[in-house]
Amino acid sequence: MRRAFQFVVRNWPLKLAAIILATFLYAGLVLSQSAQVWTGSVPIVPLKLPTSAVLLSNLPSVTSIRYFAPADVAARINSSSFSATVDLSSAQAQTDNPIVIEKVTVTATDPRVTILDYDPPSIVVRLDPLVSKTVPVVVDHGTVPPGLQLREPVLSANEATVSGPESVVRLVTSAEARVVVQPSGIDVDQTVDLVAVDARGEVQSPVDIEPSSVHVKISVGSGLQTKQLPVNPIVTGTPATGFEIDTVTVEPAIVTVEGDADALASLSRLDTQPVSISGAATDVIRTVVLDIPTGVDPLADSEVTMKITLRPVAATRTYSAGVVLSGARDDRTYDLSTASILVTVGGTVEALDALDPQTLAVVVDVDGLGPGSHKVKPKLSLPADVNVVAMSPPEVTVTVTENASPPPSESPIPSPSGP
Asked: Looking at per-residue confidence, does 415 or 163 come out higher?
């Protein structure tokens, strides 16, 4: 009995490992005999793609999955029963080596399904650095029908930003808007999608373009002519009280337009859209669009800059001011032809309202005048923002006379002295 026990426990780890291995081999044999193969297509979805990289091509699909499942579950297996992913979080995009090999992970949506293996277990992924650059927007109008002429296109945007794989973006030279000119001669006026093209005009993809489309206007006609026209500024409204329009200017003052001869013949100027100055107390500067009739197009921008300069309203008022002598001598008498003068002063309403008429005094300078009659221009001192418009009379006659000297007093006669 003892020998039997020793035989059982001798090398027991080896014997236990053999039993476990045999169990796994048997289980594997059972599973392999019960395993099934699903040969549908499960798209491989990229996960955690670096923001600085872009896939150069679509990923393949898992096309063969060997699995074990209960009979009732296996009967319902379809493409939605599995999902396939590839983790790209550690992938590095390199221009000189865009190819990386990544492991594919396949999972079953039903936990009773055990996946044994699948094909492909790993895939080749092509990554490229994500870059952007700005390119000009150009118009491709194709072949122009006979007898028609085109003017330069007017675009809503002249540049676009192209983003995508570095290997593709570096080939892009422009963003192209492709339009078709109709034989009927109808003007082109439409929004067109942009495509990225290389120097040979071949489309490059995949890329993103911002903006993705532009509005294109092209005047089409036969015998188009040009004409230079002055810009006529249109101003509406009334400025704030106390202000008036000083000057109105536009830049540019002259624009060149193009159109059929009949459309240009009746044009002598181009009006602007109205600019209101209602209630304005400071200069008004606006960018406004020209009012361009149908059939006529500007060769440059259709906007002009209008500047409306305001100034305080000038007014006049008349007051009666007394005359004051300056430089008079005490030994002379001065007679004036008038004792007051009507003075008309001018300035802004605000300045005139601040002027006190009681302080007005016209000065007549008589310094150095000798006896006789003299015509003297009166002077009036005023604040800096008020000026003299007129005086009535403009001159004052000053008559100067010498004051009579008092007679000399007689000296008393001395009395004779006594003996």
From this structure: 163
**CA angle in degrees (0–180, nearest 5) for 119-120-124:** 175
Topology of the domain covering 33-127: RNA Polymerase Alpha Subunit; Chain A, domain 2 (2.170.120)
Name which residue leads in pLDDT, 195 or 89.
195
pLDDT level of residue 29 (50, 70, 90 thresholds): very low
pLDDT at 134 > cutoff 90: yes
Report the top-level CATH class of 225-312. mainly beta
- The CATH class of the 130-221 domain is mainly beta
Exposure b/e, 326-364, CB count within 10 A at least 16 = b: eebeeeeebebeeeebebebbbbeebbeebeeeebebbb
The pLDDT, as a whole number, for residue 198 is 95
Cβ contacts of 310 within 8 Å, gap of 6 or more = 239, 243, 244, 245, 246, 277, 280, 281, 282, 283, 284
Domain 315-402, CATH class in plain words: mainly beta
Q: What is the pLDDT of residues 276-329, one digit of tens each?
A: 999 999 999 999 999 888 778 777 777 899 999 998 888 888 999 999 999 999
Radius of gyration of the chain (CA): 52
| pLDDT at residue number 32 | 46
Q: What are the tokens at 148?
A: 């028609």
Mean pLDDT over the full length of the chain: 85
